[in-house]
Batch of 2 targets.
Target 1
Amino acid sequence: MQQITAPDISYLAIAPILIVLGFACVGVLVEAFAARERRWGLQVAISAAALILSGGFLAYFLSSNDAAGGPTGRTGVTTLAGMVTVDKPALFLWGTLLALGLLALLLLADRTVGGDLRTEVFPLFLFALGGMLVFCAANNLLTMFVALEVLSLPLYLMCGLARKRRLISQEAAVKYFLLGAFASAFFLYGLALLYGYAGSVKLADIATAAVGTDRSDTLLFAGLGLLTVGLLFKGSVGPFHTWTPDVYQGAPTPVTAFMAACTKVAAFGGILRVLTVAFQSTQWEWRGVLWGVAIVSMAIGAIFGLTQTDVKRMIAYSSVAHAGFLLVGAIAMDADGLSSTLFYLLTYGFTTIAAFGVVGLVRGGGGEVSTLSQWAGLAKRSPMLAWVFTFLLLALAGIPMTSGFIGKFLVFSAALRDGMAPLVVVALVFSAVAAFFYLRVVVLMHFREPVEDGPTVSVPGVFTTVAIALGVFVTLLLGVVPGFVLTWASSGGFLS
Amino acid sequence: MGTALLIALLLLPLAGGVVVALLRGDDRVAKLVAITVALAELVLAVLAWLSYVPGAARIQFAGSVGWISRIGVHLSFGVDGIALAMIGVIALLVPVVIGAGWADKVPEGRTVSGMLSLILVQQSLMVAVFAATDVFVFYVLFEIMLVPMYFLIGGYGGARRQYAAVKFFLYSFFGGLIMLASVIGCYALAADRTGGGSFDWATLVAVTKEAPLSTQVWLFFGFFLAFAIKAPLVPLHTWLPDAAEQAPIGVAVILVGVLDKVGTFGFLRYCLPMFPDASRTLAPLVIVLGVLGVLYGSLLATGQRDLKRFIAYVSIAHFGFIAIGIFAFTSQAQVGAVTYMVNHSLATGMLILVIGMVIARGGSTSIADYGGMAKLTPLLAGMFLVAGLSTLSLPGTNSFISEFLVLLGSYPTQPVAAVFATIGMILAALYVLWLYQRIMQGPVRGAALIPSEPADAAPARTRIVDLSGREVAVLAPMVALIVLLGVYPKPVLDVVTPSVAATLTSVGAADPVVAQEGK
């Protein structure tokens, strides 16, 4: 009988994952045993504690990791028998996820405007976040698949949690679930084919197998293709984006904020790792396809975004366009491409959460009003809100002095230096097209007369105010002095 | 000293804009603060003009601090003679514009302080865009500059202002993004050649001018497209008539007088020195566009029925002239083009203001609604004539010298273009004088001056009054400069000539023919 040896576990390195998932379990227990009226406060406290504690351990690990390896620091730690790699990109992504998670939590926890959610949302939120953390660091396709499910299933549920707009919310949940299940199946199928090709599900082994063998390329590329479809689906990259508008529109707005920002970070973290670690050597074979995908995604996002009549759907299409821009950086496949994509993810997340925070404040008789025509003349009723949203839209459009511009600039310059000049020009053209629909909203808010019995703007609670303020502040800060975050983002590459 | 002066020039209007924005409640105080700031900026600009040493270092008053060190971006500023001339024009036009709009009403729901604040912020950004010597910073300012202008047109303009504002923004933003591709391309080139990435203008010039022609052509095209949209060259001009028609008068002055000059300034500062081979190769193309602009703009100006669109087409014709002068690659033509950038701002700026005063009295922008106005407002008619004569480049006015230099200088290298451009001069006399005749001469007529009911004719007459003391005070400095620079252009020529010579040297153009003829 084969001896089973316990794998070596670096508990410190994976402490953020353990804390988030552990607190999620505590949240489930609270849900079961605490009295109804005390649950809300308890759950918010538990979630916040989980994020902060987890962030603290992350910072501690980072400093001890840096101290251990001399002036530049160790590149990272592979632990749990090679299942999880905590390297510099993973740490950056974790930091991003925890920071964005905290912002999203602030939106979720504010009962003064919405009151649309129940307390179940908090443990689900922590489980999803835990799955995302694992997903970014998974060094093994099987672990990655499990993480994918751990992050997806709670998200499906969270989409359906709205109490006031129950039908559209549940419709969104079902759509997301069905399409997500297909995407997972694609991922799993790809995984199986890759296992057939390489005889291993470890990313590094696949990379080794792909270099200098006479095995059938069909298995490799079919596997890669199916796997990528699963990943691109999560990142809402066109043409695998079809769920995005419906789900963004239907889900409760704080959940949409969380999903839009964090899922994108996790998905692109996974895409970056898989492509870089496992498929770097075959990049010339598949890069052309992803060029096409990036162009299609930018085109779909920019062009369909023009015709939207709902703010949330418009931001959804904007996210599809942004996914295309991110993919441009992700396939640059060098240090610049990696650091610029990481930076872009961070900035996009903050801007998007703040934008959804603002969307959640505009309300009418039956809850949120996200129909664009109702937003006409909002600047007259609530100038502050209109200016904040204008700033966020300009950031999404990539106007200088916002983080959106720096992100775009870095991604495009990485791509250009990697010889993808035509793709960069296409991306810039679609940036200009996308700018039109952001401007349309600015025109609507500032230059139109308000509609009769239009929506009112709720006075935001403390939590929402803080979340929006933080999002706006970071958007501005990283537009003006992006240097320090850029240094973190480019402190090291993937560890295979 | 010079650097401190430049920093003050950059920051003063910005600070003023913030202060004015806070004075929401009190329009009068807001106006007073705004005009004080604008006049202080003018004093600073005069000081800068005096302490600038023509012929010394190419970029003077230079200062630089690190910004994004990882990609080699520095906040670097400095001026050459061309930039200084444009900064001087901005500093002159902004107080004039504020003075001219003193009594104007803003659309319902808007505040005067909001508009003045945006104008001052716009001024700060425009000074900065001319003073930037880091290409990244230039790009950033080039795009940000659109935002206050967008709100000025969209918030305070005419009936179709939303359409005009969005069109203006999208055109320029699109051009800017294409330029961004070129900026990144230059950066990548510099990073490959020198090892470390930099956006410093002088560093990039040293790298890109050695690049192979094919590379240069691509990079040139990115910059050129952005500047050709901004300056508007035909066929990229269609945003300007809408923007100029819908913008409030003062904003139209700033838009046509200064903002569009960023385009022609960009040709001189970026296209020519950075891509000399491409510039020489593609010069015929630009010259053709310039000639097209001159003829097309002149013809459409002749046929216009709307006063504000008329100005837009006049400007398109003049920008064609400037482009011809820049790309003829002789020192006379280029000096002519640069002084034209200044003189066009004065002449057209004044013409817009005068037309604004006509519109303020008649309440209509249609040319057909006016006639014989000189009988009611002789002073206004006189001012109109001065602005018009300067616009058609009558000898003795400032524009004549520029236009003459452009034609004289471009004839040796581009004779056909020079001949066609001369037709533009003739058309200019036609459209200006015909407009003057229709609006000012003959018996009093037109719906704007005489309401349809004859019974109300008498009170309506008294409605049309001549220029007030404020309006005369606003126009007087413009008239003075138009005449002064017409007979004594040396102050402007002295400042711009060395910078033009440096630009021509960097593009590798010698003008032996002209030099011999000159002797």
Target 2
Amino acid sequence: MVTRLSDDETDAVFRALADPTRRDILRRAIRQEQSISALAERYEMSFAAVQKHVAVLERAAIIEKQRRGKEQIVRARLETLARATELLGEFEALWRERTLRIEELLADPADPASETTPTRPTEKGHP
Amino acid sequence: MTVISSEKDPEALTLTFVAEFNAPVDRVWQIWEDPRQLERWWGPPGWPATFDAHDVTPGGRASYYMTGPEGEKAPGWWHFTEVDAPTRLAFDDGFANENGEPDESMPVTKIAVTLEPAGSDASGTGAADGSARTRMTTVNTFESLEQLEQLVAMGMEDGMRLAMAQIDELLAA
């Protein structure tokens, strides 16, 4: 069974990679970390435009940006961090869902332990 | 939704999940300590858990299985590493073979639970108006990215996707 990204995450990744400049930025960042100003010199566009492309990649969790002195450094996070984040997200979803069930259980006016088994003392929960 | 925060640390491979419930600490402790209550929420949708042993003491063990939609059974075990009722519980969660023995080839997740009073009632012992709230912090620690991959790729995945769909439904309602 192969794990997929959520639909929203998949959309973000594909949108991010649908642009040739962004694919080029990513290729360079995979080989070696890049400063945004160095990237800006490579393309015929403004610094701000390059920053926008970087922001799109960043939102899709494909690269990460770090400030180093006056420079902003861009680094690919494809293989490990993005994957780990995605996988941890699966467990986050599980816990969100468990939280809802716990809420239901706690709100159940019937003694929750009495339905299926002999009861055990529960007095200590009731001050 | 009472989820307060959820923090993923992809470098440390931890998920820290914080939720608050409208119940005193002692009451929330029971959902962990009482296997019949635990069964009502532990397993993902479509995979209800059945605990046939649940010894909530330091060094104690739990044994359980989750039953899938096709009747297939996924056995698991817990090993309690820390128990301090009613506020602290830590255990390892792993997979077992058909005989209920720990399967060494499978991932082990470390889970640490902390319960503490939350909200206006600082005593957390249950205000007269029943307004006590409890903050539950759950830290899940995974051994390696490979093990995390393995866990997610296994049968739990379907259940979790279903769970997400259910949450979306609830939120849309």
